[in-house]
Design goal:
alpha+beta; 40% helix; globular
Amino acid sequence: MNNRVVCFDIKDLGTTLRKAGMLIVQNMVWTRVSTNRALKKATRYYVDEFHLLLKQPQTANYSVEIWKRFRKWGGIPTGLTQNVSDFLGSLAVENIVGNSDFIYMLNQHSGDQKILAEKLNISQHQLSFVNNSNAGEGLIFYGNVIIPFSDKYPTDTKTYAIMSTKPEEMQTEG
């Protein structure tokens, strides 16, 4: 727990323990943010499959508190999700998006695009950057500015080989 980087994996918890596991992780992260604040250190908190935290009222409420309070305590929360409709379907999302200064959006399903256009005030022209877009293309929301981007990362580098999530490109230990 004293390592610089700590990863919590709760995927193997059954449905009965998952809610308790998520609350324990959130509490541990908050404790780390509080400790690091006293040391004048920033704490980064990355949550993959973030929409899962928003399905349960207790973890959704805790997530809202994290998004509202972390910045004042030196915390930098980041939620990651692939299905925006699951994320935007939560009642907590208004508070979370309202307390987010930065949103990075890649290719989106047409149904999700409609929800995003409404919730984030995206024009049809801006939506074209997340409609059938290629890898590395999308929209960045920074404050009240929406910026289209295209990032063509070279595929012939060691860092690309390490970072790729495409099964056919993933390196195996050996």
